[in-house]
Amino acid sequence: MSASEIKWQKSSFSGGGGENCVELAEHDGGILMRESDDPSRVVVTSREKLQAFLLGVKAGEFDHLVE
């Protein structure tokens, strides 16, 4: 799969212009993350690490970073 075939997904909570979003994609068994305003910088993580992070987000552990 080439980079152009990667299916990026962003949250429906992202701004209308798409400039305030983090996009995710699945590729080669890993999870890719990038910011829409700088798509050349990609972070690769595992499903397990992403799941732990999302559980923390849902529990409010990172709320202080956006308030």
Could you give the topology of this structure?
Elements: E1 9-10, E2 22-27, E3 30-35, E4 38-45, H1 47-58
Antiparallel strand pairs: 1-2, 2-3, 3-4
Task: Give your account of this protein's structure.
This protein has one domain. Helix content is 18%, strand content 33%. It has one helix spanning 47-58; strands spanning 9-10, 22-27, 30-35, 38-45. Strand 2 and strand 3 (30-35) form a beta hairpin. The longest helix has 12 residues, at 47-58. The relative contact order is 0.14.
| SSE class | alpha+beta
Low-confidence stretches: none
Assembly classification: single chain
What's the number of domains?
1
Keywords for this structure?
67 residues, alpha+beta, 1 helix, 33% strand, globular
Report a brief summary of the structure.
The protein is an alpha+beta fold. It contains one helix and four strands.
